[in-house]
């Protein structure tokens, strides 16, 4: 979910994530997670991220946030990748850090 504010309208959250907001909290299938009382009916993305195990990352330059799907406790703590080296198409080592400061999409593929 791409956000321009950390306050989320409950209906939009339900439509985009499959979680239902009920008086007892956020519910999906048979699981309900308690949520604190909401002011003005809005949801706080930080609380949702913490309670539902959803990663929440910010792109400070654009002022946008991304609230990802629940990750079973394996959410990334940030959107910054560690540096590593892989061979390029010519077989020479290429450091991910050479792209520091740029947005990078990593696509992985395996034949199996």
Describe the structure in your own words.
The model has no long low-confidence stretch (mean pLDDT 87). The chain starts with a strand and ends in a 17-residue tail after the last strand. It is built from two helices and ten strands. Strand 9 (85-87) and strand 10 (93-95) form a beta hairpin. The longest helix has 8 residues, at 10-17. The protein has a domain at 2-67. A three-stranded antiparallel β-sheet has the order 1-8-7. It has a three-stranded antiparallel β-sheet with strand order 3-4-5. It has helices spanning 10-17, 45-52; strands at 2-3, 7-8, 20-22, 25-28, 31-33, 43-44, 56-59, 64-67, 85-87, 93-95. By secondary structure, the chain is of the alpha+beta class.
How would you sum up this structure in a few lines?
The chain is of the alpha+beta class. It has helices spanning 10-17, 45-52; strands at 2-3, 7-8, 20-22, 25-28, 31-33, 43-44, 56-59, 64-67, 85-87, 93-95.
